[in-house]
Amino acid sequence: MTFDLQMIRRVYRNLPEKTERSRKIAQRPLTLTEKILYNHLAHPASQPFSGGKDYVEFHPDRVAMQDATAQMALLQFMSAGKKKVAVPSTVHCDHLIQARDGALADLKNARTGNQEVFDFLASVSRKYGIGFWKPGAGIIHQVVLENYAFPGGMMIGTDSHTPNAGGLGMLAIGVGGADAVDVMAGMPWELKFPRQIGVKLTGRLSGWTAAKDVILKVAGILTVKGGTGYILEYFGDGARSISATGKATICNMGAEIGATTSLFGYDRKMDAYLRGTGRSDLADEAAGVKEHLTADPEVYENPEYYFDQLIEINLSELEPHINGPFSPDRAWP
Length: 333
Fold this sequence. Notes:
By secondary structure, this protein is an alpha/beta fold. It is 39% helix and 17% strand.
């Protein structure tokens, strides 16, 4: 079963028209990043935006919050005078559970020490129509990937690793609590229009090499600052060979290079993951608009013309990596 399927259907129903209109504004083929950004504009555009320069307002599709940052966000939302949240939103109790003595003992200790916080979050969530995932229900990023992420969507989350949802082709960006309040209250959310880095993956992972080695390699190339102000878009035959959870791992760790977010275009691996997690209805909907859930063909055929930077990695030659010490951009094969 897919949560908020009617909302997703509305997004997909308007996708062809919005994408064509965005293409006319840009006057060229579009990356997937551009499609999602332009399709979620709060106000119609009359000319292309300049990456790294223009501040633009958006209407994301949903919001996710973890228990530590949700406290202040919900206190602020309560003062907004709204009866319900304007977009589907969720709270996930995971960050206040500290790993010390084992799962059961740690969960018990977290409940003992933070019960007042958990009760507050649960109460406010019930009142304002917010989904609530109690302590022990799962880690926010994995819960979102398994239940809420959808290809072509846009979400914000009050955690730096929100981009994990990029593994399902969603533009997912980590923000502060005040940003979450704006979106939950129905207000536009402002972002400096990102620049773009294309990462072309060829070959296939083999041996002990795993998806995490892709982003460790990228971190070694870009450094911990090199992704700042950029969205990374992965593509190529190699990208299509990586599982959806592998893609999510790569997108999740994009935070370590300062990237705004990362994502992959929709493919059969994502279709299989949606069906494997009980969302065949969403997979069927995505299949009907799949050409709009990835970049235009011309982009991936000649990526150097459409991305601000281009990185190429042959997965067949990629070795297992260990990064560090002290900094994730110290990449050692």
